[in-house]
From TrEMBL:
Keyword field contains Transmembrane: no
Organism, scientific name: Pikeienuella piscinae
Family that this chain belongs to: Belongs to the enoyl-CoA hydratase/isomerase family.
Name this polypeptide is given: Enoyl-CoA hydratase/isomerase family protein
InterPro entries: ClpP/crotonase-like_dom_sf (IPR029045), Enoyl-CoA_hyd/isom_CS (IPR018376), Enoyl-CoA_hydra/iso (IPR001753)
Gene Ontology terms, MF aspect: isomerase activity
Pfam family, one: ECH_1
Length: 265
């Protein structure tokens, strides 16, 4: 079955839980325009169902998500309006998750990079495998986080650690992610599902109203000033990507499987 026939996002309900699975394992589950649209549609449908209290997001195969479709970005960069629409759609998805009354759990079993990390950062609880490989990674190909990564990552792990990950592109495993506060829980890969089941059991022991209220209170203290930061990120990334040589060169180098020739232009 080709990508045009296969569902980009699988949605499976189990009682008051829904699992959304990014479903392009062969491509490491890229978060391109079609996948973002599919996720927004799935989340919007879930938001209408009051008896769902927990949403799990995970990736098929060996990756959670390796990030955006970098080759596809070349076309987006040539159309300023289309690229801005993509950024706003991605940010809108993550803000919906963050502001939802439901509890969102990210389950990271493998690679989680760039846009994949930005998706994870919008969730309420992050469960990672010890063997997971996590990075911001944008600057490795002269890109910038444009779906909230520059704002949510420092809030999660502090500005100094966030700048280390963003500025170096360094990749860390799940053990390190839990140690620095990037993950809520870490477990060996072969017991990841068991740990998830225990977590869901813990959540189900509390009232849905209590879960909603607790999430609201925690977020209310964490979010002031963030909206301005997100808008600044979006406009800066849009300008950088559509006007700089480096941004396009980074994508071309990725396509050609070589290191980018970066000149600060």
């Amino acid at each position: 079955m080709g990508d045009t026939e296969r569902p980009l996002v699988l949605s499976v309900r189990d009682g008051n839980h829904v699992t959304l699975t990014l479903n392009r394992a062969e491509q490491l589950n890229p978060l391109d325009r079609r996948t973002i649209a599919a996720l927004r549609s799935a989340v919007a449908e879930i938001e209408e169902q009051e008896d769902i209290s927990v949403v799990v997001i995970r990736g098929a195969g060996r990756a959670f998500s390796a990030g955006g479709d970098l080759e596809g970005y070349l076309d987006l960069y040539r159309d300023r309006r289309k690229f801005m629409r993509f950024l706003r759609d991605f940010q809108a998805l993550l803000e919906t998750i963050e502001r939802s009354e439901k509890t969102f759990i990210a389950v990271v079993q493998g690679h989680c990079v760039a846009g994949g990390l930005e998706l994870v950062l919008a969730c309420d609880i992050v469960l990672v495998a010890h063997e997971a490989r996590i990075a911001d990674g944008h600057l490795n190909f002269a890109q910038l986080p444009g779906a909230g990564g520059s704002q949510r990552l420092p809030r999660a792990i502090g500005a100094l650690r966030a700048k280390l990950l963003i500025l170096t592109g360094r990749m860390i495993d799940g053990v390190e992610a839990e140690r620095i506060g990037l993950a809520s829980l870490a477990a060996p890969l072969d017991s990841l599902d068991e740990t998830l089941a225990e977590l869901l059991k813990d959540l189900d022991a509390h009232s849905p109203l209590g879960l909603r209220s607790a999430k609201y209170l925690v977020n209310s203290g964490a979010l002031p000033g963030r909206d301005l930061g997100l808008e600044l990120e979006l406009t800066h990334v849009h300008h950088y990507a559509t006007t700089s040589r480096d941004a396009s060169e980074g994508l071309i180098a990725f396509r050609d499987k070589r290191k980018p020739d970066l000149r600060g232009e």
